[in-house]
Design goal:
16 strands; single chain; seven-stranded antiparallel beta sheet; four-stranded antiparallel beta sheet; Beta-lactamase; globular; alpha+beta
């Protein structure tokens, strides 16, 4: 039997490749996770945090089962977070010339309702009209017996369409089963094998398992409760049910590796990332808010690419903030309670800059800009603060000219940001107005995102 939730908070951490989180931030994160687990009676959570494009924390809290302590290297079931991988497999197959997003389903599979009208793109964007086989937040009777993809297709994908393709957005696990079958037919190999070869191995994602293989004593158990009753271990679904709609288990760290690839536009072609994140318009022109296997929207004004996952006894969320080069992964082993979303919300408040934090960042960057300006006036430059391109720009001649032309002006009377920072080309752009008695200069700076982002551009020119 599980011990009282308050006793579950034994913490295990894996050293991260970088550690910009302060001790105060770490304490706040621990407190937020502990509070959420206690208040929701969720047995455990495993988290990963990406900041400035690097994994800065992987940590597990609580008990993965009655006898198994939660550890960061234990794979949790990510369920529908798997959809982005299924969708990416088909985008890669399109790159190989084996499928097209605009192929009709009937080209690949016979007998699917509306197959002569539904495209692969509509399967992946939940606009196909195929009825969802698992809308419930509990496992129904048929899920106690093993199923194949064809079994699911025969029951649900041959029913009348819920709507004409493209008319509505309606989440459909059935559509992803059909998409997975097309991916296997086009690639000539099992979906998991294709993903391993194209994505998991190149990213070093060594923890990935078929979800059904993690329903055992060596892995976290799924839990739930009836109303406010005791927390109980649940019976997992039989094999085969989630498959291409949610077949993966992995560590929070490995899912964060995927998030970093998304941020950096690496591992797969950049246009595939763009295609996946581009929201689909319905037939009437309305924006669905969903791309190909991911939601695309904003949180507090920040662009966010995200998805959630639910399997029997597990809930998770994966949230990526590309412009901030940040990501938050939270996995829990109970499907009763909202600990996973509470934890993600609270971590976002801690690790993402608030409006006040943004003002502080602007002030900090202004201080950096002034320091670099003063160096150039003096004829020196700390090159460690510059990107490769900026170092290329600042030749010895450039530094000499800055020194000889700016030095005689003396000390500026003011050095102020000009407007608010904006994003362009992956950089934070901030202008400054530098005033001298009878003279004004403009300074254009580009920074890498993040409080310690290196300088990409530092150009002084005459002002008005």
């Amino acid at each position: 039997m599980l011990r009282h939730a308050a006793a579950l908070l034994a913490l295990v951490a894996i050293p991260a490749s970088a550690q910009p989180l302060t001790s105060a931030e770490l304490a706040q994160i621990d407190q937020a996770v502990a509070k959420a687990l206690v208040e929701t009676s969720v047995p455990s959570a495993s988290i990963a945090i990406v900041r400035d494009g690097k994994i800065v924390l992987t940590k597990a809290y609580g008990e993965a089962s009655g006898t198994l302590e939660a550890k960061p290297d234990l794979p949790y079931q990510i369920a529908s977070n798997s959809k982005q991988f299924t969708a990416m497999a088909l985008l890669l197959l399109e790159d190989e010339g084996k499928v097209s997003m605009d192929d009709k389903v009937s080209k690949w599979l016979p007998g699917i309702s509306g197959g002569n009208k539904i495209t692969i793109r509509q399967l992946l964007s939940h606009t196909s009209g195929l009825q969802d086989f698992w809308p419930q937040d509990y496992s129904f009777a048929a899920m106690s017996r093993p199923a194949t993809p064809q079994d699911i297709v025969d029951v649900w994908a041959k029913k009348p369409l819920d709507f004409q393709p493209g008319d509505q957005w309606q989440y459909s696990n059935t559509g992803y089963v059909v998409a997975g079958m097309i991916a296997e037919k086009a690639s000539g190999e099992p979906l998991m094998a294709y993903l391993k070869r194209k994505i998991f191995d190149p990213l070093g994602m060594k923890s990935v398992h078929d979800l059904d293989d993690t329903n055992g004593p060596a892995f976290p158990h799924g839990f739930g409760r009836f109303a406010l009753g005791p927390v109980r271990q649940v019976t997992p679904q039989a094999r085969g049910w989630l498959w291409a709609a949610g077949e993966l288990s992995m560590t929070a760290e490995d899912l964060a590796r995927w998030d970093i690839a998304r941020i950096n536009r690496s591992v797969v072609p950049a246009d595939d990332w763009e295609e996946q994140e581009k929201t689909i318009k319905l037939n009437d022109g309305k924006d669905s808010g969903y791309g190909l296997g991911v939601y695309a929207g904003t949180l507090d004004g920040r662009r966010k690419i995200s998805h959630g996952g639910e399997s029997v006894g597990f809930l998770s969320t994966n949230q990526v903030f590309p412009n901030e080069k940040a990501a938050i992964v939270v996995m829990t082993n109970s499907w009763s309670g909202d600990a996973y979303s509470r934890i993600a919300r609270d971590i976002a408040k801690i690790v993402l800059p608030s409006s006040q934090g943004k003002d502080s960042t602007v002030a900090a960057q202004a201080a950096r800009a002034r320091a670099v300006y003063d160096q150039l006036v003096a004829g020196s430059l700390d090159r460690s603060q510059l990107t490769e391109n900026a170092n290329y720009y600042f030749t010895s001649q450039a530094i000499a000219d800055y020194h000889s032309s700016l030095g005689p002006l003396g000390t500026p009377t003011s050095f102020e940001p000009d407007g608010k920072p904006v994003l362009r080309g992956g950089f934070v752009i901030q202008g400054y107005t530098i005033k001298y008695p009878g003279r004004t200069l403009d300074l254009s700076t580009f920074y890498e995102p993040g409080a310690n982002g290196r300088i990409e551009q530092f150009l002084v020119s005459p002002g008005e």
